[in-house]
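Readers outside the structure-tokenisation community will struggle with the description of the input data as it stands. What matters is that the chain and its backbone geometry are given together, residue for residue. For illustration, here is how one protein appears when written out as sequence plus structure tokens:

…
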Amino acid sequence: MHTIQMTVNGSLWTGQVEDGETLLETLRTRLGLTGTKRGCEVGECGACTVLIDGVPTTSCLYLATLADGKSITTIEGLSVDGKLSPLQQAFIDAGAVQCGFCTPGMILSAHALLQRDPHPTKETIKTALSGNMCRCATYEQVTEAVQRAAEVIAAHVGT
């Protein structure tokens, strides 16, 4: 067992993790954050994507011990006071949430994109989300959602 400390969705968490335990397992079983999905468990589908220090990362391949001292953001961390973020709302409005399994990973990858590029092109969006697979094929709606969110955010901050 190893003791680690990480900031998860803005709150400090200290706990014990097993040798070989993935960050995905820690988030889901120890912290109860089930928005992060267990998909392929080989890092190919992106359903388990979280942000580690702002960078989209497949948590199924990331050892929990490596998260010691890091800042982790899960889908649960994007809402504020129970209100969906503009990006989460845009996914709903654009119909980009068919079965919803890939949605958390997609939204987190899109969030990271909008943090570094508040005015992304369709191609930039597609590239940023290329590590996230959607079995329901909502890619056009996802692109539309990210563009909508970028517009809402820009209007809100006046850029």
The mean pLDDT is 93. The chain is about 35% helix and 15% strand.
